[in-house]
Design a protein that fits this description.
The protein is an alpha/beta fold and 628 residues long. The protein has 20 helices and twelve strands. The strands form two sheets. Strands 1, 2, 3, 4, 5, 6 and 7 form a seven-stranded mixed sheet that branches. Helix 8 packs antiparallel against helix 9. The longest helix has 142 residues. It is elongated, with a radius of gyration of 54 Å.
Amino acid sequence: MKYLFIFISFFYTFLYSQTKPDTDSSSYYKKLAISDKKAGIVIEKSNFRDSYEYLNFQKAMTFKSLKKYELASKTLKKIVQRPDNNNTVPVKSEAYYQLGLIEIQLKRNDSAIFYFNNALEENSKTKNLKQKANIILAISKYHKNNKEYERAYNYLSEYYQIEHNILKLNDSKFNFDKHKKINQIHLLNEEKRKSEEKAQIKTYRYSKLISILAIALISILSLLSLALYKNNVIRNQNNLVLREKNKELILAKNKAEEASKARTDFLSTVSHELRTPLNAINGITHLLLEESPKESQLKYLDSLKFSGNYLTTFINEILEINKIDSTKIEIEKICFDLKALLNNIQNSLKELAAANNNHFLLEIDDAIPDNLIGDTTKLSQIILNLINNALKFTQNGKVTLIAKLHALENEKATVYFEITDTGIGIPKDKQKKVFESFSQGSVEVNRKYGGTGLGLTIVKKLIHLLGGKIHLESEVGKGSTFNFKLNFDISKNPSEKIKEAKSYNDDQLKNKIILLIEDNKINQMITRKMLENKSICCEILDNGEEAIELLKIKTFDLILMDVHLPGISGTTATQLIREFNKTTPIIALTAISLDENREQLLSFGMNDVITKPFVPDIFYNTIAKFFD
């Protein structure tokens, strides 16, 4: 253990002593001092304090090798000044010897002989012949340098005598070691022979055991093979059954998908086909109401208008759900100002709120960024549906729309929306069902308040589509609270201000000349009458071919183009018209849902789209936009 710590201490000293110092010698000696200090710490911890003399000796040798003789001499003197003990005598003797060599290097011969004599005195205590020989040789060289040849010769003779004795001792030791090694080889051979005999006995026993185990293993493997064979037969049978079941499942899945597609196609077709006669019902009702009907007729016409609007809403909501379920809906990414959007929604619902004597309040968090990126159409649809419901089921109460910033991180904003009302509330057992299609909580609620029961279904599906989840809290008689959170990207560019739709002015429409291209006679009559009621001149054509030829020779202020025409379609006719007329506004008339094909219709060169059945105010507003 002692020598282990001595080795560690020497390691720190040798770490720098074995390399030459770099150009910055002061840095080198600093590092050497640090190594010396670390070595000293190791020795202090090891409780072998005498070993410190060996460390100092190595340090002195380092200085000597670097020709720093004064530093080496100073370190060696520290060693020889230490009290004598059995452990320090050898190193003190060597220290005196090295001091003598250093003094000779420094040309101080008198001091050198003093140290050599002290080295011999210390060496006599250790009887280290090799060290004594080195000291005697150094003294001989000293006398030779001083031209004391007789003394030099005497010491040199003594040196050779010591070397001769060392050689004899080494030879005797070598012979002893050789004899000892031969005896050890004989012992090892005998042990090897015995171990080989034992190994042979063990090998025999192991061979016997292995034979027994091999027989047992073969038996077990035979049984396992038989079991695996039976399992394989059973597995193959099960696989056949599973394949048959998978085929049945695939057939059932295909049938279900076909049924779902058939349902989707059916609803789309029925909704589309209902729009044309519904346009006639709503249009004629509107025309009759403008003809100053009798008091007794007014009640019936109002009921007819309500039924037509209800059926229109119902068809639109069915198409909306159908579109979401068929994954045909796309999410838009538009830069917008949420605060402006919500203020516009509040303004548009003031009349509806006043109808049931409700207060509609809006609370918007100022921390919400002005420029968000998201789908404003779907967001507006969600909020409008929820507020419409709240206003419908609340009387003489309060409806509040709250928008708060929930989180802001990495150019993304999470906004918390909450719609609260003080209306009739929803029973606990009905709260999950209100999000299902055609569900309004109860038959009594449906009869009293009306509605299709599809609004909340659409809201839930749209929120899920935008990455959110809607939550409901409600208590009967105290009201309901709907809340959800949506994530929006934040735009660095300012959003476009949302313009409120301006109401049309009759003067904008007077004496305008409009070409109507429509093949349905009832729709021709209704549309002509609606236009003439606003002092608009209307010319009607049944197909697109005639319209193209007429527009080559005659100019109109605006064109109303039915999309589905006999012969060439309205879209094809529009493309052909745009080849020679790029300025006249063309508005598409279609019985298909507006959001389903609006962008496609506009891509053909149409300027706007009006869906059937016409809503009179929207119909006139859309036309008036092009007469500003």
